Amino acid sequence: MTFIMLQAIENETDRNRLTNFYIQYYALMKKKAAEVLSKFGLSNDTKLSEDIIHDAMARLIRNLHTVTSLNEPQLVGYAIKAVQSCAYDCCRKAISQQNLVESKGILEGAQEEKVWEDPVSYFVEEDPLIRLGHVLDKLPQRDHDILIYKYFLDYSDKKIADLLGIKEGSVRMALVRARRRVKESWEMPIKEKANDL
After folding, report:
1. Which of 130, 131, 122, 117 has its CA nearest to residue 59?
2. Cα 136 to the chain's mean position, in Å?
3. CA spacing 20 to 30 A to 105: which of 40, 83, 181, 186?
């Protein structure tokens, strides 16, 4: 169903980008949906997760004007927020239908977390995910790739080594260097502001 919806995008570049994004990050979106479902005490029903991901992709397509301006790490963050928001909506409906709020009290504590009706409102220029996207964009390609593989896709060190053509033992050191570069880039604007004072 999601692929049919993606094919309705008129611009071929946008259609291909979102289709490839969906294929590449499907597992990550499914993992986030399962995480929210478990937080609300609902079983990780594959059909329910599929519905959540479908709704999130529909939101991305509705906000295509915003999505097209995001780089890959920003788009990943944006999609995860959309999945989270859709999952919360889905859980609320399921809970109200099953009258679980009174019988099990599973909304206690979960209500504290802010749920965004539209993820677009969440992303302002000062947002840490947007800033992280800018930082990752400026990294050398190898550093960018190793961080995406490890922290966004949860690849093993062996798989990362195979993809990058390095020894498995070198992956850890490469990750240390990449994280150090991210930290330096992240702190640079803060140091520059301090020097201006």
Report:
1. 117
2. 14
3. 83
